[in-house]
Design a protein that fits this description.
The protein has helices at about 5-15, 20-25, 60-75, 95-110, 110-115, 120-130, 135-140, and strands at about 30-35, 40-45, 50-55, 80-85. The protein has about 140 residues and is an alpha+beta fold. It has a four-stranded mixed beta sheet with strand order 1-3-2-4, with helices on one face. About 30% of the residues are buried.
Length: about 140
């Protein structure tokens, strides 16, 4: 069985990008932007149709992270409806949320980029990549 890191790497190589919006387009996953009160994004699977909803009020970096997370659901949990709410952290307790988080950080941060910044702290990496420290720590775990 392939690891989540291998799966994320496969899609980056296959489509020549780590941009989750571009990968979703290649996979014919519909992406809808809308106003949500407390929801950053969610993935829905309906009648063999995959759809990701993204809060259009998110800043660019948050939008990329939420999209990568929801794309993780679309790829790893294809037939599940995954409703993801972000309050203070993306680190939720359920297995599928942890897997989607892992996919997101593996997609967005290359090993080469980490090597380039190997002398940086978790806090510094968080600033560089615009990803919260807990997710940077998740990415650093192999």
């Amino acid at each position: 069985m392939k690891s989540i890191k291998q799966i994320a790497g496969y899609y980056k190589r296959k489509f020549g990008t780590s941009n989750p919006f571009e990968i979703a387009e290649f996979l014919n996953i519909e992406v809808i932007f809308d106003n949500f009160d407390k929801c950053s994004g969610c993935y829905l699977f309906m009648k063999n149709h995959r759809c990701i909803f993204i809060n259009k009020n998110l800043e660019y970096r948050d939008r990329m992270l939420v999209m990568a997370h929801e794309l993780g659901h679309a790829i790893l949990h294809r037939k599940m409806n995954c409703y993801f709410i972000r309050n203070k952290t993306f680190l939720l307790t359920s297995k599928i949320e942890r897997e989607a988080n892992r996919f997101a950080v593996d997609l967005l941060i290359d090993d080469k980029e980490l090597e380039e910044y190997e002398d940086k702290t978790v806090g510094q990496l968080s600033e560089i990549f615009g990803i919260e420290p807990a997710l940077i720590e998740l990415r650093l775990k192999e």
